[in-house]
Specification:
Two copies of one chain form a homodimer. Chain A has eleven helices and 18 strands. Chain A is α+β, with helices and mostly antiparallel strands and 392 residues long. In chain A, the strands form five sheets. In chain A, strands 4-3-2-1-5-6 form a six-stranded mixed sheet, sandwiched between helices. In chain A, strands 7, 8, 9, 10 and 18 form a five-stranded mixed sheet that branches. A three-stranded antiparallel sheet of chain A has the order 13-16-17, with helices on one face. The interface between A and B is large, with 76 and 76 residues.
Chain lengths: 392, 392
Amino acid sequence: MSLLERGFPDSEFEARAAGAQALMADLGLDVLLVCTEPEVRYLTGFHTPFWQSPTRPWFVVLPAEGRPVAVIPSIGASAMNATWVNDIRTWPSPRPSDDGLGLLVETLAELVGQTSSNENVSIGLPMGHETHVRMPLADLDVLRERVAPARFVDATEVVRTLRMVKSDREIAKMAHICDVVSGAFEGLGELLSIGMTEREAFKSFRIDLLQRGADDVPYLVGASGPGFDDIIKQPSDRVIERGDLLMFDTGSLYDGYSSDFDRYVAFGRAGADAQRAYSTVWAATEAGLAAARPGATTSDLWRAMADVLDAGGSLGNSVGRLGHGLGMQVTEWPSNTADDNTVLQEGMVLTLEPGLTWAPGRMMVHEENFVVRADGPEMLSRRASSELPILK
Amino acid sequence: MSLLERGFPDSEFEARAAGAQALMADLGLDVLLVCTEPEVRYLTGFHTPFWQSPTRPWFVVLPAEGRPVAVIPSIGASAMNATWVNDIRTWPSPRPSDDGLGLLVETLAELVGQTSSNENVSIGLPMGHETHVRMPLADLDVLRERVAPARFVDATEVVRTLRMVKSDREIAKMAHICDVVSGAFEGLGELLSIGMTEREAFKSFRIDLLQRGADDVPYLVGASGPGFDDIIKQPSDRVIERGDLLMFDTGSLYDGYSSDFDRYVAFGRAGADAQRAYSTVWAATEAGLAAARPGATTSDLWRAMADVLDAGGSLGNSVGRLGHGLGMQVTEWPSNTADDNTVLQEGMVLTLEPGLTWAPGRMMVHEENFVVRADGPEMLSRRASSELPILK
């Protein structure tokens, strides 16, 4: 099985389960409960866009030993049966009177039964930063009562620790989608021109990404104009003019793994201030890359980039961080902030995302994707041009 | 402003806020707190795919009178400023030590201050079926403590009641995307052929939808084979053969509003059993449409369809319902089930989705989208062929 083959062999899921179970043991957790798409997919391989429907909750319980157990709506049984999971328990959801709670409580009781007396049972559930519980709050409150005296304990550290470091197969998927997106960005000059609307530009870029091999383009934002500070924007009917800047930022997918980087281009000409801002964020990225090695921290990356931005005359940055983790989601733990202090490890995939405000209401953000390696960063995105590209 | 113009005039948001405030008064709620994408977009118009990043929580508080107040990460300030909201409070997220909680507690206190003494304050928060709270559970628990003695009360009914009935402008957007998707389904014969892989078929269909005018195709599932029962599947490298069935089901978007219907086709020939199954789900849809009028219930729709499916020899259905509401999300309240009993009102947009198992491991699901109107259903999807289409 080549690294780029679709899906993962069972050995990948065995390693994930074993890793989670070791961390669970460290934290004194008897079982782990997850209910969000990335966590369920990470532990089982269950992969469907059906999560966009808010109707039904989905649960996966990882016992202290062995494979995860799926407690899911019957509509998902066939898809879950195609994964390495072999204990699949279903109910006919939607059933608001008991939308899986009874089955989940029963499953939890069974899976902790062998390990502890009920008084001391700890059920791990991610409750921390970057997580949420995807079930109705009224049902969650009932669930907490029904499992008592067992109690839910924060298990963010389990999924965070595991998911932050990527396997070679995960990295291969991300390298592929970053290659596809790099090609599309490098081809913007053939795709875009003065006189197009933002909406037309988005459409042609999205289709180009799919034609080049992206499975999907769930995240695409962008803007055009002499300058702008809304960097999470959807397209308008604004017509691209000579002298405009244009920014696209995309999280495109290959086999369930995401890219996340942006590019700026200018049309016809670019002002000296915009070119200077571009050079500053490009240089900040260089500084971040130079600092990226195992043992350094996300805060070291932040400081290396922030120093260059400050020296470049930044008027500020509304993003709140200078890059983040990348994987199944377009953003993941950790965050490159002044006080995040996550220690970098080999195999972490990160973005560097220095941004600055170069004039009131005008922001420029630069982004690259790379893997932390012992001998220095391995680029996943192809490094942007060191000067602001000017399209004809 | 034509009905199909992008976005909504402020009058639409004024009507939504007034509707919510009337329901809040009925339920004795002093303010309403929402934190999920559709609810925030419904009340404010804030529209970005940035919600795919799990890092930051977003809050909107609707007071008893006046416009909603946004309590959001600073990265969203510029985009929120383009909406009708004029009270925008931001913090530099991500900031795990206080990721908006302090600002939210302060805002809630201020907005309920005029209306009640703290002991009796009820803060509405959707907690029921089809909802979840999109913030870390640990933060939610702290929030509950910090607002005490004020308390959170389930406000599902507020958003459910309002969102179930669509305005003319919302319906115009959905009619447009359903028209685009209908055209793409009708053109499948020119797009697909024996010898393509499922992956190639998905890719060409997704690109075709974008070329025809879909803004995005976030939901696309499908399968091929002599029969299949995984109807939320992603494509494989399976090659389409003569005699295969193929199913595509898509929730495509126009201006933030979704279609949700599927189509089955056969390649070269189709077995009598598959054709009979198709005719049965088609006839069940006719029965559902005949029952769809204001005053009837979702359970009436369910019964009308279930009778036809039972008479057609259905071996079962794993979906759990026979259709649902449709709007900003690919599925919304209500559900067409035996005991849902939601009373249909003019302007509700629903899917009918009868499905049956026609042989072990072989399921067929048919789906159409329509508006409930006084003089009978107004189709949004163009009615499928009454017989299983057989492509060359």
